[in-house]
Amino acid sequence: MCAMDRFLFDVHGPDDDALREGFAWLWREAEDSVGIVFVPTLGTAENLVPGLSASEVRQLKANRQLRKGLAAIELTTARTRGRIAGRPVLAVWADDSQLADIERSQPAAICVIPWRRDDVDAWREAYGPQDMRTGKAVPQVGISNPVVEAAMRTLTMLVNLSTGLSHPSDKAAAVHTFQILRGAGETYSPDEVRAWAAANGWGLAHAAELEVVARGVAEGRSFRVQPSGFRNDIIDQWREDAANDNS
């Protein structure tokens, strides 16, 4: 995961002040370069007023770019993805799925204005962004069981994080990890697993895949996967690692 600044307007529904403050942030971040404003669809760009004036919105939609002095803002949507890497992004009315794509593109910084608070639950819980109005970081969700966290560290080292659980051996490792934990009586929260994974290199999309496996194992679902490659005493190693972490 790239190091970046993350900010959030903790709003629900339309908020004119959030748009004004969000665009002020984007212009500052763009300085003498280019910033990105993301909206889900081109049609929703009409509602960027009063963050921009009506004439500025028309220009942005027509040219996909708006200039102010040495700074420029480019418009991107879920369908028309421009260059995001290394640029600040104002993500307006994005949801967790869209934020996963933006995060994967490695922006320089990101500021999110959601439509509904629960649209960005996974992103907020994973990354603990700074609240734009209070200046305080939103609490990140971590793994409450240290043995489970030790297991997640092992799994993270084994899995190809660029492809998540798409490879059969990686999915098998994930399934067996949770089966071992469950069989040993170590309880875990799939939501905590997802948030921890997203914040530790998996990214939002692959962390969601891991959550599905974790939840399936917790619910007793059967998985057809390769045999376990873990040694027989791996749960003892995880417990020892957890104890050392807490000592």
Characterization of the model:
It contains eight helices and seven strands; from the N terminus they run βαβαβββαβαβαααα. With 247 residues, the protein is an alpha/beta fold. It has two domains: 5-131, Rossmann fold, CATH 3.40.50; 146-246, AhpD-like. It has a seven-stranded mixed beta sheet. Helix 6 packs across helix 7. The mean pLDDT is 93.
CATH arch. level architecture of the largest domain: 3-Layer(aba) Sandwich
Instruction: Please name the CATH topology of the largest domain.
Output: Rossmann fold
What is the end-to-end distance?
28 Å
Strand order of the largest sheet: 3-4-2-5-6-1-7
List the total number of helices: 8
CATH class of the largest domain: Alpha Beta
Low-confidence stretches: none
Mean pLDDT across the residues is: 93
Strand content: 5-15%
Largest sheet: 7 strands, mixed
| Elements, N to C (H/E) | EHEHEEEHEHEHHHH
Number of strands: 7
Q: How many domains, as an integer? A: 2
What percent of the residues sit in helical stretches (DSSP H or I)? 40-55%
Radius of gyration: 21 Å
Structural class, by secondary structure, is alpha/beta
